[in-house]
Design brief:
about 15% strand; globular; 5 strands; 5 helices; alpha+beta; Heat Shock Protein 90
Amino acid sequence: MLRSGKEQRSRFRCSSETDYQNSKQLLEETQHLSRLVEDLRTLANAEAGALDLQKEPVDPTELIRDAAASFDRKIEVDISDELPLINVDPMRIREILLNLLSNAVRQTGNVSIHAEMHPKRLIIRVVDTGSGIAPEDLPRIFERFRKGRDSHGSGKGTTVTVSLPR
């Protein structure tokens, strides 16, 4: 929780509001770069087959509802009856869900997540009613650092998402 005025400036040892704002911006950029480096490390490990997965039995309904509830915006959750426990790394699956939902939420319109069991497979779909991905971009959306024209991200999210389950 951010404090205000003088208390914050003393926390950052800043003598002025300008110094405080500069320090705050520097801290935010440093945290962003740290997340980017961690994402790149995760991607490299996933692509090399060296990602350490901590698999355990997980209730997919709870995982999906929790991920959807992480957003300030309403996300419709449609889950078929009684999904069985799945043996996955809950942290990595949550990361995948949050990435897909974040991409959908950035679009305009409604966002929903659907889950249903097929023989030996759990199918999870994230759907939004936004403008969609340009047809010419579709074949390359999972390439490293590929991003659409209107994207404000780094282009690594979908690559990480597709690499994690392997």
